[in-house]
């Protein structure tokens, strides 16, 4: 079986740049998760060649519900670049079918050399949001598809950084235009987002990538994602961490 | 208009529900007998009178239908309430005997315990805060006398808001120390996470639910009194309970509480 990793990466990258949904890649030819991560890396390399810089990692499938839905028993991860950092506003016309979800974010303070090292390397924690935008039509994908598509990463934002603290069971609310759209607890993130942080270190180290000072780890979503509408004001609030806001 | 020649439908509905409770065999829905929420509360009131006449002590109320998802599922835009009696209270972690609740399900909630009456026509959040002695974490074991939980609004209201038993945590926390909107909740069984949520899932804030209850109960003539416990409503999705299950709920800032279902009799 010969999978053209570069060609698949070009297809995904083109879909994001052209704001155009594409069919699942595995429909044409199935490939495994290891190949999918190679495609993901090739997509990121294309972005880096355009001048984007790595800004962190994001974790996916961190809730029991999502793992069960996808039939997997481990998290997936993707890479974040500085071009994905949302400013005060996100232009939804530049996205295919964006969804937003409430996140817990960790700020890496120094290079992470081992999984055991990661928690002491954290310089701060914040409430965050992630805008997901699967490049696949109708958000319909298999596990290798979504891994290749950089775990649907599109945009993200974080609130003010706070000193590291226990976030095992912090209440979170996602509001759109001042109305509650989702409610949940950070406990939905692998029982404690700190577990997701350790998983991020494990997966990154395993892939030969070092979590660098200044990088952000998006640990996962506390609730299901909701469609991100146009001309909307989005606010995510987390107990003890304040809020982060974005308009579209 | 009720046909004067037919039996009283409120009475018939109450008798159907009482028979299900007594026999332990779930019954058909009661929506063939009654159609309005007022009639459903009349059925519930009949059950309450029956309970009080039997010497059961009223200890508080539960609020149901407080989540957007459940309201959408039942096509309603308001919560409902049911009665709590002393014999429905189970100590933290004590075994719940088999069959104690028909078709049991568990949900984690915040309980408010009052130390003042709430008898105004309209209450403010200030009235409620002043009247609340403390909050406790709680697990409500809901149940349905109606087969397969095939319920509409009138079915659940008539059936005492599908109440069963309730377990309260044991460490009282004053409201000044809590942000009820953002207190995270986890419900686990054997360390396995079953449900997560936060106070905002309950009508935006559990205090909103309690305010609705206080005003509503004055209107129906059975106001909240000092000493009453108010189960404010689920903080996250409800989960089915099976014999042998031990549930633990943790509410951030409030602590934890357990509901333990006895194993099936062999």
How would you explain this protein's 3D organization?
Chain A: It comes from Actinomadura litoris. Chain A: This is 4-oxalocrotonate decarboxylase. Chain A: Keywords: Lyase. Chain A: Pfam families: FAA_hydrolase. The complex is a heterodimer of chains A (248) and B (266). Chain A is of the alpha+beta class. Chain A has a single domain (5-247), classed as Fumarylacetoacetase-like, C-terminal domain (Fumarylacetoacetate hydrolase, domain 2). Chain A has helices at residues 5-18, 25-28, 33-49, 64-70, 143-148, 193-206; strands spanning 54-60, 76-81, 99-108, 122-132, 153-158, 171-176, 179-185, 216-221, 226-227, 233-238, 242-247. In chain A, the strands form 2 sheets. In chain A, strands 1, 2, 3, 4, 5, 8 and 9 form a 7-stranded mixed beta sheet that branches. In chain A, a hairpin with a 2-residue loop joins strand 6 and strand 7. Chain A is globular and about 50 Å long. Chain B has 266 residues and is of the alpha+beta class. Chain B has one domain: Alpha-Beta Complex (Fumarylacetoacetate hydrolase, domain 2), CATH 3.90.850.10. Chain B has 6 helices and 13 strands. Chain B has helices at 9-23, 37-53, 68-74, 125-131, 153-158, 206-219, and strands spanning 58-64, 80-85, 89-90, 95-96, 105-114, 132-142, 165-168, 184-189, 192-198, 229-234, 239-240, 246-251, 255-261. In chain B, strands 1, 2, 3, 5, 6, 7, 10 and 11 form an 8-stranded mixed beta sheet that branches. Chain B has a 5-stranded mixed beta sheet with strand order 4-13-12-8-9, with no helix packed on it. In chain B, helix 1 (9-23) crosses helix 2. Chain B is globular and about 55 Å long. The A-B interface holds A 64, 169-173, 180, 183-188, 191, 222, 237-240 and B 68, 179, 181-186, 193, 196-201, 204, 236, 250, 252.
């Amino acid at each position: 079986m010969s999978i053209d990793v570069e060609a698949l990466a070009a297809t995904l990258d083109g879909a994001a740049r052209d704001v155009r949904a594409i069919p699942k890649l595995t429909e044409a030819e199935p490939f495994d998760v290891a190949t999918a991560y190679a495609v993901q890396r090739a997509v990121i390399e294309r972005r880096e060649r355009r001048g984007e810089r790595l800004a962190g990692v994001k974790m996916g499938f961190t809730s029991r519900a999502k793992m069960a839905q996808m039939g997997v028993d481990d998290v997936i991860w993707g890479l974040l670049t500085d071009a994905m950092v949302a400013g005060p506003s996100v232009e939804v016309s530049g996205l295919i079918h964006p969804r937003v979800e409430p996140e817990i974010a960790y700020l890496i303070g120094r290079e992470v050399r081992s999984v055991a090292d990661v928690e002491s390397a954290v310089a701060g924690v914040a409430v965050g949001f992630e805008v997901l935008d699967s490049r696949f039509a109708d958000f319909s994908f298999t596990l290798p598809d979504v891994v290749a598509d950089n775990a649907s990463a599109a945009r993200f934002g974080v609130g003010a950084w706070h000193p590291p603290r226990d976030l095992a069971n912090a209440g979170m609310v996602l509001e759109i235009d001042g109305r509650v759209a989702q409610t949940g607890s950070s406990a939905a993130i692998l029982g404690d987002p700190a577990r997701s942080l350790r998983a991020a270190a494990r997966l990154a180290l395993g892939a030969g990538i070092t979590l660098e000072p200044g990088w952000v780890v998006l640990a996962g979503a506390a609730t299901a994602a909701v469609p991100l509408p146009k001309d909307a004001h989005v606010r995510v609030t987390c107990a003890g961490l304040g809020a982060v806001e974005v308009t579209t | 208009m009720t046909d004067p020649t037919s039996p009283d439908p409120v009475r018939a509905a109450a008798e159907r529900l009482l028979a299900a409770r007594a026999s332990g065999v779930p019954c058909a829905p009661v929506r063939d007998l009654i159609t309005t929420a007022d009639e459903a509360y009349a059925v519930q009131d009949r059950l309450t009178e029956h309970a009080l006449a039997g010497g059961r002590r009223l200890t508080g109320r539960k609020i149901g239908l407080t989540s957007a998802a459940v309201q959408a599922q039942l096509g309603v835009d308001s919560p409902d309430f049911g009665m709590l009696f002393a014999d429905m209270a189970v100590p933290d972690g004590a075994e719940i005997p088999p069959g104690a609740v028909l078709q049991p399900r568990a949900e984690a909630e915040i309980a408010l315990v009052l130390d003042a009456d709430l008898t105004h026509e309209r209450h403010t959040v200030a009235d409620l805060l002043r009247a609340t002695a403390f909050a406790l974490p709680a697990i409500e074991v809901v149940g349905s006398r109606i087969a397969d939980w095939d319920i509409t609004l009138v079915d659940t209201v008539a059936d005492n808001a599908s109440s069963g038993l309730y377990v309260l945590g044991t460490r009282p926390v004053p409201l000044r120390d809590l942000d009820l909107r953002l207190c995270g909740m986890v419900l686990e069984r054997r360390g396995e996470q079953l449900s997560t949520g936060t106070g905002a899932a309950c009508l935006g804030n559990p205090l909103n639910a309690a305010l609705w209850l206080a005003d509503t109960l004055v209107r129906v003539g059975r106001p909240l009194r000092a000493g009453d416990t108010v189960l404010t409503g689920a903080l996250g999705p409800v989960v089915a309970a099976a014999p042998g299950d031990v549930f633990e709920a943790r509410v951030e800032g409030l602590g934890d509480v357990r509901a333990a279902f006895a194993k099936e009799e062999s």
